[in-house]
């Protein structure tokens, strides 16, 4: 796929869904307001206005349209999904003690941790109000379960960090929770609100799940091989935060005794020195764990694409297909 | 009311509702588990097991029973209410940087802020799953609105702290949000799940609202005149945290220029010295603002009692009546 000459898939999606996304953005602006507490829209606007790709709400709109939905509830659900995402970002940045997000200072840095925690809670409650308005108990059930899975994934990540015993199975649980659960809920509720047949609901769930996993593996890989300008993060942030991501897990699985001592010191105990990141990258190169991680991401993108097979033949299906390629194409 | 010789009303409530509260506690234990992240039940058990009075879930059970409910959903709703309460306590303790709660070290002190934030999110999601199981969209609507009001009240409190312009109207908004919203939702959903007539739903909402306000005013008063053994808090915590609670608001409203300078320095700028708390208490004594605050709490307790008039004549109604007295009786 040549991403240089054609419009990127998420841009195609934005173009195709422009009118509905305008409604989503208007609804977000309306619902992040607070009559009594002006700090809420200030903090929210800082993050919502920072130019994220709005990938998750677009997935909800896309799934609903693909399944022939002609009502208006998908706009509410898309805003719901974006509010849940924004709430988790606010809390994540406090938990990770992050200073930068999307190339700008984080809310916890500009205001304080307190504001980030409480405004996150507010947005989560607002998302909940929005989904109740759809009147669909099945949608509420899916999103309640997704919320619990997200929080569980975040807690799991917390206890797995710096634990050299974290294996690929636990890693998959973590990223399914913290990332894929919202992707799969986003696509699934789009199909559910359209009252699509069960096989289409299942297919769109599977697509979102695999896309989210591919997306997160790619993100974790870019942390070691990306550039700050492309990702808005610094190379090695995860190493410094002692996160057990796939490139490290794979390198530890085949480490010699000396190498294991290196990982034990840097990730396990967090006693890092100048040159450690370079040494870690050398070890990943030695065993090809960055390449192996890339292959895993590509395999999940393939799973995402194959999930689309039974869905209606529709221009949006083609874009979702390309989107799966695109998520891993940024790795080349 | 002689609280020395008879059983306290919340103990009477616990006795009357013992069988259902056992179901609520079993459900809480079941739902706070996490297959993948053992830290979740550890943190939750620390707080849930610390022997809170379970006042809020008992209010839900009481309201449902008072309205003649014979189903089982009130148990789910009571557990929902307790989960929401526990989630807000976890986040509050991080926001307030508290070290003690219910006479024990807080979770943020025993584990870390990260765990408190994420486990709070998890419990909030769990509460949401529980309420979805009742299948009542009206209940979901009430609890979604209550959650948003709680978060809004907390943010409002954050921006009002140390702001000498905070008046009694803003104070009422804050405590309605951070405390009364969950009390009124707790009683209201009990009536709604029982499919009680609208006037009973409204009466139980009004009771919970007034009881919650009386409860919080009493709490704020005890911060200045209680003993650590009775409240589990130290006298003057709110003063040190520069919170604009009712006794201070009333003293500032009538302050001379010199006194205003004192409040400006201690609460506004937070430059506190030895003897400042004693001086603040002297000023409150001079203008009788502790007494005036007590009278406000008693007036809200009267409002709570009068809300009960049109409700069915039932032993639980009498206990709720006494409970309103009891909430302010601890001030004598």
- Classify the beta-strand content of chain A into a percent band: under 5%
In the CATH scheme, what's the topology name of chain A? Farnesyl Diphosphate Synthase
Radius of gyration of chain A: 20 Å
| Overall pLDDT metric of chain A | 91
Give the overall silhouette of chain A: globular
The sequence of SSEs of chain A as H and E is HHHHHEEHHHHHHHHHHHH
User: Would you identify the CATH H-level superfamily of chain A?
Assistant: Farnesyl Diphosphate Synthase
- Give the termini distance of chain A in whole angstroms: 11 Å
The interface involving the most residues is between: A-B, 42 and 42 residues
Multimeric status of the protein: homodimer
Question: Are there runs of chain A of 5+ residues with pLDDT below 50, and where?
Answer: none
Domain count of chain A: the total is 1
Quick one: how many beta strands of chain A? Answer: 2
Which bin fits the share of residues in helices of chain A? over 70%
The largest pleated sheet of chain A is described as:
2 strands, antiparallel
Order of adjacent strands in the largest pleated sheet of chain A: 1-2
Task: Kindly provide the name of the CATH class of chain A.
Answer: Mainly Alpha
């Amino acid at each position: 796929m040549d991403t240089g000459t054609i419009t990127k898939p998420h841009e195609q999606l934005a173009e195709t869904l422009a009118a509905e996304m305008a409604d989503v953005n208007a609804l977000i602006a309306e619902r992040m307001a607070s009559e009594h507490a002006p700090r809420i829209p200030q903090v929210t606007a800082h993050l919502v206005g920072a130019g994220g790709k709005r990938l998750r709400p677009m997935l909800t709109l896309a799934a609903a349209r693909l399944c022939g939905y002609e009502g208006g509830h998908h706009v509410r659900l898309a805003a719901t999904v974006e509010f849940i995402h924004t709430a988790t970002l606010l809390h994540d940045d406090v938990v990770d003690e992050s200073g930068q997000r999307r190339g700008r200072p984080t809310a916890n840095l500009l205001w304080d941790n307190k504001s980030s925690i409480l405004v996150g809670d507010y947005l989560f409650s607002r998302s909940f109000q929005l989904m109740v308005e759809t009147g669909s108990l099945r949608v509420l059930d899916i999103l309640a379960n997704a919320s619990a899975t997200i929080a569980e994934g975040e807690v799991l990540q917390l206890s797995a960090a710096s634990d050299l015993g974290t294996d690929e199975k636990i890693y998959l649980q973590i990223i399914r929770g913290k990332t894929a659960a919202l992707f799969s809920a986003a696509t699934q509720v789009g199909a559910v609100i359209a009252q699509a047949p069960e096989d289409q609901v299942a297919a769109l769930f599977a697509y979102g799940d695999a896309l989210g996993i591919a997306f997160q593996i790619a993100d974790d890989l870019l942390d070691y091989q990306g550039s700050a300008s492309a990702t808005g993060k610094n190379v090695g942030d995860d190493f410094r935060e002692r996160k057990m991501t796939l490139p490290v897990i794979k390198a530890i699985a085949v480490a010699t005794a000396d190498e294991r001592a290196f990982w034990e010191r840097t990730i396990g105990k967090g006693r890092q020195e100048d040159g450690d990141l370079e040494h870690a990258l050398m070890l990943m190169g030695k065993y090809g764990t960055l390449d192996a991680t890339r292959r895993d991401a590509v395999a999940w993108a393939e799973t995402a694409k194959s999930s689309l097979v039974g869905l209606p033949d529709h221009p949006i299906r083609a874009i979702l297909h390309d989107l799966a390629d695109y998520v891993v194409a940024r790795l080349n």
